[in-house]
Specification:
The chain is of the alpha/beta class and 174 residues long. 41% of the residues lie in helices and 20% in strands. Helix 3 crosses helix 4 and helix 4 runs parallel beside helix 5.
Length: 174
């Protein structure tokens, strides 16, 4: 059985994770561990962890790291706290793979925690482009930290390979 830790930090990445979670849970080859943090746990952002549970998913771990600050320093400090929290979760659970989706800055915490623990990182959504935001830098950083890449379009897969990712690690999944 392959243990996959799926990380979700906000409603935006959860919506993309939803079909993946359902598919993984339906396959007996996988043990899915759902770890949530960030905006999901904040009443200020709707405490969306409640929706995840209402969808029927068991939350295996919660990582509290979101500071009540809307400044660049607050975001940077939250990432640091998230790295500590995810490191504790991953060291305790030792999943075979950590799966992250998208380009949310909070996901850097999970990837930075998994890397030194030598836990392979699977990234969904690499190779995309977004104009005028830090999303590109975050997405590309996640790409470089990851070991397996699930691109949503062939064009994105080609971009990942152009960025130096090994073709055998890149899959177009739609």
């Amino acid at each position: 059985m392959i243990s996959i830790c799926v990380v979700s930090c906000a409603r935006s990445d959860y919506s993309g994770c939803l079909p993946i979670l359902r598919g993984l849970q339906a396959d007996a080859e996988f043990e899915v561990r759902l770890v949530v943090g960030g905006m999901h746990l904040s009443p200020e952002f709707g405490h969306t962890v409640d929706q995840i549970e209402a969808d029927g998913f068991e939350i295996n771990e919660r990582v509290e790291f979101l500071l009540s600050s809307d400044t660049p320093e607050g975001a940077a400090r939250s990432i640091g706290l998230g790295t500590i929290g995810f490191a504790q979760v991953f060291a305790r659970n030792r999943p075979d793979v950590v799966l992250v989706l998208g380009d949310r800055i909070e996901l850097l915490s999970a990837a930075c925690a998994a890397l030194p623990l030598r836990i392979p990182i699977a990234h969904v959504g690499g190779g995309d482009l977004t104009e005028g935001a830090i999303d590109n830098q975050v997405r590309h950083a996640l790409t470089k930290l990851s070991h397996i890449h699930f691109a949503v379009m062939q064009e994105h897969a080609a971009r990942l390979i152009q960025m130096g990712e090994e073709p055998w690690r890149v899959f177009v999944t739609g």
